[in-house]
Amino acid sequence: MLFNSFQYWVFFFIVAALFYSVPFRFGKILLLLASYVFYMWWDPRFIVLILTSTIVDYYLGILLETATGRRRKLLLIISLVVNLGILGFFKYYDFFAGSLAALLRIAPSSVVLQIVLPVGVSFYTFASLSYTFDVYWGKMKAVRNPIDYALFIAFFPHLIAGPIIRARQFIRQIWSWQSPKAIVIQSGIILVVSGLIKKMVFADRFAVVSDSYFNNPTAHPGWLAAWSGCLSITMQVFFDFSGYTDIARGCAKLLGFEFPLNFARPFLARNPPDFWQRWHITLSTWVRDYMFMPFSRGRKGRLVLYRNIFVVMVLIGLWHGANWTFVMWGAYHGLLLIGYRLFHRATAGTAIDKVMKEHWFVPFSVGAMFTAFVLSAPFFRGKTLQSSGYVLGALFGSTHITGDFLLTTGTIVLIFISLFLTVAQERSQFIDRLALQPARIQIPAYVLAFLALELFPATGPVPFVYFQF
User: Fold this and answer.
1) How far is the C-alpha of 318 from the C-alpha of 183, rounded, in Å?
2) Which of 158, 220, 280, 320 does the annotation list as catalytic?
3) Omega of the bond leading into 163 within 30 degrees of 0 (cis)
4) Chain CA centroid to CA 444, Å
5) Does residue 400 carry a catalytic annotation?
6) Contact (Cβ atoms closer than 8 angstroms) between residue 300 and residue 236
7) Is the pTM of this model over 0.85?
8) pLDDT in tens, 147-188
């Protein structure tokens, strides 16, 4: 069930109606069962994976709380082996097996298993691991109620594509749950409508251009076509994923839960560190807390720091997909972060540093960061390193052909509208404040929103980009 399908909203309203018709102690059981139905809708076989991860980490958390010494470390290792084993086998076995077969010049068919990737596996395994790490480090107590823990893992608004929820964020909300107030319900509705507009009005329109280009880049030679395609996939991915997150957060609010912010206007970022504090925030902070900080603890020196940044960003790239193109995407962003740190260190206190801090320079730094992100699009969307290389060459005019400008008038208008709304939200948080406005303001806003959805109809529910991760 896709968030942008009629089928999902029938499911959601039935679940919400049943949930609010019973006491919460029964309601959370109903939410858990509904979440399992939601997941099995994609493929019933893979419910075994969620149940395995849930059961193993539930009992390991209880054992970790009282264990000491080597036994404590062994329990953590078991959690890592189970969760990363599930993620590694289903997501990466074919990738590494195929790469090894190519290296050894043997037939890939002899080792590749054509494994079907379970939807959401990258998200719920990271959520489950955050729990065992937090119990191991003493940041939270083990959860004793199996229903509470299972609901944390499987809660359907975040199950398929995040945001990545941590146990200590969500479990407390279960324990202290209260029926949401009217202002929270209004805020949830605004998030849902905002997410649907991002997906159906913006993302799906840019998808037409990006698919046309990246499905066969050689059919659209020239630098103008390449920049059109890369700009389109950049806008598509942002509106697609942030739209999904808005809908997920809105649905959670409507059920009385709060999800963390996952996007904070990343295309207004002024530099690479600022960008990763705004883009896919729950993944960035997860990687910071559970990978980067543990790797860096007790190790000093800039070279160690730069090495860890690069390794972690490569792993982030690989998390996005089992393809060498994603490895290169992560490596590219790792080099951007390292390059910025080196540049910032070299220019600190100089005239260049003072100019970059001037208010009038902000549009230039924002434009440079946005362009740097667009340049990573060939690796994110390219199917092979060869096709990514072709697009990169076309971006810099290696074909000496201007090419066709693929963006339509409608998509160009959407870019300017999104820029205006983004700057307005950054300065005044007008979308967040809409729930506080009187009916004479809210009602016209909703009418305009649904009018936009009606004027830009999709040919059918288009899957969200991050479902493949």
Assistant:
1) 40
2) 320
3) yes
4) 31
5) no
6) no
7) yes
8) 999 999 999 999 888 799 999 989 999 999 999 998 999 899
